[in-house]
Every structure is written in C-alpha cells, then in structure tokens.
Write a structure and sequence with these properties.
Length: 370
C-alpha cells in the first residue's frame, strides 16, 4: 500500500508539467484529481486500474436530462439508464442478523441512483420471513445471508422520489419469485405507489408508440412495473415483461463481441410487436474494480451491434452493474449516444439541442450508428 501511494505521488509530480494541477471543482473529465471535491459538477474522482490507469481521474456519474434536450416525445423515443440488481449494494447492512454473503452489483443507494439519473431499476423479489424481500438466491430460495431488506423500504423511497420530482418517470423490472396471493399488489399499495401506476390496459401491444412523456406526467402515470411472472398480468394487473419489451441475453452471453442475441424468454430482438428494447451489458460475476473496463469502450462498441440486432432501433433501457465506474464518461456517454440516435437521428446529443429535422446533423453523424 505504501509503495502504491508513493508511486501515485511520483506520477502526479512527474505529470504536473503536462497537466496543470486543478483543485476545488475545477478538474474536468479525465483530468487527474486528488479527491472528488476537485472535480467539476457531475464528476467524481476515481481510478480505473482494470484499464491499466493507476491515476485518479475525474469520471462522470450523472446523466443528461434528456427531456430538457427534447421533450414531449413518446416514452419509447428515449433511453433510460437502468441498474442491474439495483438493491445489491456494496456494504449494505444486514436486516436478518447474519452477514450478507452474496454478489454485489451497485455501490450507492437506490435514492442516489435515482438522483444521478438512473430511471430503470431491476429488483429481485421473494417471499421471505412472512414478507416480500429484495434478495439473491440459491435455487430460487432466499436465505438470511442473501437477503438485503424488505422491499417496502425501497418502494417507499421510490415513492418519495416520485413525489418530490413530479415530472420524472421510473421503470421497475421485477425478477419475480413472490408466490403469496396478491403479494406484490399489497406491497406496492402499502408503499403508496399505486397512484403513479401506468395501467396495463394502456400499454401498446402491437409495436405502437407509447404515450408521450407529457401525457404520462399529466395523468400521473409515472411508474412502469414489469414482472417476469406472466400470470401476474391477469391476476394483479402487473405487465408481463416480455409482452412489451425485447431484451438481449444477460451476463457473459450478452457481451460477446459482435453479437446481441435475445434472452430465452424474449421475442427476437428485431420483433416489431414490442415497442421497447432493453440492452443488458454486465458480467455473470460482478467485480466492482473491473466494471470500469467493461462500462467504457466495450459498452460503447456494443451499442451499434444491438441497434442492428433490434432492427435498427436504439435500446430504450441500458442495464449495467456499478453504473458509475468507467475510464471517463462510461455508461453516461453510452446513454447519450442512444438518446442522440432516438431523439434526432445523430451521434452527438448536443446536435439534438438545435431542433433540426430528424436525421439532419451539423456534423458527419447520421441516422446510422457511429
């Protein structure tokens, strides 16, 4: 540890001639920093050793507010950052009395995720201890050492966010192991979220556009909930995920160079009967220190592959582990690329601010993927 610290100080001293040292909020993207307070707004100080860079640099951790870039479009004309296993947080306290010994996929609270621009949450829900819990499992069974917390805690936090941000829309994807009758209905009702519920009856079922963001906000339909259990659509009015969303393979199978196959439960990626596309990009076994590598160039390279696989449609949801980790702009730059394609048919989201006709760009970008 002392050797690494000494090496870092030496590197900083040697580099000061090529980059003027910056402090107190003046450091820009990828500039060397000593602490997060040195970085400009929307950036934090971290390293990406997995990419061979030992130096701490300012990396991006907040999303562009795309409705400020171009508002009022159908919901499926936007892309939303989604966290895989949003609840499986590094250092989360145990609520069972036993230490948590299982995979971790994120590093900050769900409230911080939402405040940083995450709008899609993947939550694994189980019957456990007479309640509904967020949990990993072995063989579909939740244990004391894989359980994180009762889902009501998280859902109440989401309700607080929606209440405090009346123009925001949140999507929840449930990996559903709840078998208690109306178990999900009860917990969503108890959390006060039913008043935001987007009705299944209004969801497009043949590839049509979704209502516009403006319409959804006006009607307070600001919570979309999808379940992996197809029976819940009839029994509890919770949309069956793959009736509305095309989704690529999760885990290592979804990260093979040049391939973007659908997961087994989903229709083909290019099936036009679904208006939404979800792109997974995370490893089978999450490792926080390696996430910065995968959330950088490999993620950006996969975007046009999934665009082509989905019938020349940009994904609407981008699901990752450790969403803040990258070697620079990471998942947020990738999200900007998706939204640039969706909003104005260009590769640079800044062009979309010019309100030019769709596909007309003031750079070499076009409707084709970069």
């Amino acid at each position: 540890m002392r050797f690494l610290a000494a090496a870092l100080l030496l590197a900083l001293c040697c580099l000061h001639t090529s980059q003027a040292l910056c402090f107190n909020g003046q450091c820009q993207l990828r500039q060397i920093c000593l602490r997060s307070a040195d970085c400009a707004t929307g950036l934090f100080c971290s390293t990406c050793v997995a990419n061979g860079d030992l130096l701490p640099r300012c990396h991006r951790y907040t999303a562009t507010n795309v409705t400020d870039v171009r508002g009022g479009l159908p919901f499926n004309k936007y892309a939303w950052l989604t966290t895989h296993n949003s609840f499986a947080i590094v250092g989360a306290p145990s609520h069972t009395g036993e230490p948590i010994v299982t995979f971790e996929n994120q590093e900050d609270s769900i409230m911080d995720q939402l405040n940083n621009g995450v709008r899609g949450l993947m939550l694994d829900m189980y019957d456990f201890l007479g309640d509904v819990w967020l949990c990993h499992s072995f063989g579909g069974i939740c244990y004391n050492f894989t359980a994180f917390e009762p889902v009501i805690n998280t859902l109440k936090g989401i309700e607080g966010f929606l209440s405090a941000n009346p123009t925001e829309i949140v999507t929840i994807f449930i990996e559903d192991y709840v078998r208690s009758p109306n178990g999900l209905t009860k917990v969503f009702t108890d959390a006060g979220l039913k008043k935001y519920w987007f009705p299944v009856s209004m969801m497009p079922k043949n590839g049509e556009d979704w209502p516009t963001i403006t319409e959804m906000v006006a009607k307070n339909y600001r919570l979309l909930v999808f379940t992996s259990d197809m029976t819940k659509e009839a029994s509890e009015g919770i949309a069956y995920n793959w009736r509305y969303v095309n989704e690529n393979q999760y885990g290592n199978g979804g990260m093979k160079t040049g391939q973007c196959p659908n997961r087994g439960e989903s229709a083909a990626m290019n099936a036009k009967s679904r208006s939404l596309v979800l792109m997974n990009f995370f490893r089978d076994n999450p490792v926080q220190l390696e996430a910065c590598k995968y959330n950088s160039a490999p993620l950006q390279a996969m975007l046009p592959v999934c665009y082509a696989a989905a019938g020349n449609r940009w994904p609407n949801f981008l699901a990752v582990d450790f969403y803040k980790r990258s070697d620079g702009g990471g998942t947020f730059n990738a999200l900007d690329t998706l939204n640039a394609g969706l909003l104005c048919g260009c590769s640079d989201i800044n062009v979309c601010k010019l309100n030019l006709p769709f596909g007309v760009c003031n750079t070499s970008s076009s409707t084709k993927p970069p």
